[in-house]
Amino acid sequence: MRVRQVALVARDLAPARHQLMALLGLDADFADPDVGIFGLENSVMAIGDTFLEVVSPAQANTTAERLLDRRQGDGGYMVITQVGHLQAVSDRVDRLGVRKVWEIDLPGEARAFHLHPKDVPGAICSFDEMTPPESWKWGGPGWENRRAGYATGIVGVEMQSDEPEPMAARWAGVFDLPLERRGDSLVMPLARGEIRFVVATDGRGDGLGGIDLVTPDWARVAAAADSLGLPRQERTVRACGTRLSFIEGRHE
Predict the structure, then answer these.
(1) Do 77 and 8 touch, CB atoms closer than 8 A?
(2) Cβ atoms within 10 Å, residue 197
(3) pLDDT tens track of the chain, all 252 residues?
């Protein structure tokens, strides 16, 4: 089980897309026409074999628009986790009484479902199974051949809440994974990467507040952030209403 894709939400797609691609040194992405069923438009960027997505409302009264209003601006939207056996996760979710708000089955390609954000708070949580496992349907055709940028993988997600312990307990129950105390954070380790739960300190309440990315060259990321005028502190850059924390090294 691993976080394979993280989605952010922006009021206006074009500037957010430009900012993130420039920050990460990317020159190609994928606009998925299928997100139109949710009233959205998007950009999906390959970060190694993981993915950063930005969605934006393309029509009124979408979940994304309501989230933008509630959290007063751009920010985190969705955590998409790859699993090996979706049916077992589906059965567990049903036993817990957690509602599914969307399901898809594309034989030989992908199966997935999204959970109701009122049942698993903070972000839309999706569980996805791919055939074969190394593929990623949502990345678009030829994602493996896109030019590598300054980051090589997403390895963590930071969820924030005024009361992080109940949020962490709910996510841990749905994932059927233990929590670890690490300083002021509760951490749910995955087979690859982790999901952390922290106290919200920015006045924006519950939500997906941060992403951890691996970079082999922090200096290039820092230079890009400065050229874009993005605020940064130590190795964390704030973009699209989200804390992007960079860990120097190589993603495997």
Answers:
(1) yes
(2) 25
(3) 999 999 999 999 999 999 999 999 999 999 999 999 999 999 999 999 999 999 999 988 888 899 999 888 999 999 999 999 999 999 999 999 999 999 999 999 999 999 999 999 999 999 999 999 999 999 999 999 998 899 999 999 999 999 999 999 999 999 999 999 999 999 999 999 999 999 999 989 899 999 999 999 999 999 999 999 999 999 999 999 999 999 987 655
Question: Which one of 144, 175, 195 terminates a domain?
Answer: 144
Maximal C-alpha separation, the chain = 50
Whole-number Å distance between alpha carbons of 127 and 113: 6
Strand 207-215 relative to strand 242-248, pairing: parallel
Domain of 219 in residue numbering reads as 149-248
Provide the 8-state DSSP code for 221: H
Number of structural domains the chain divides into: 2
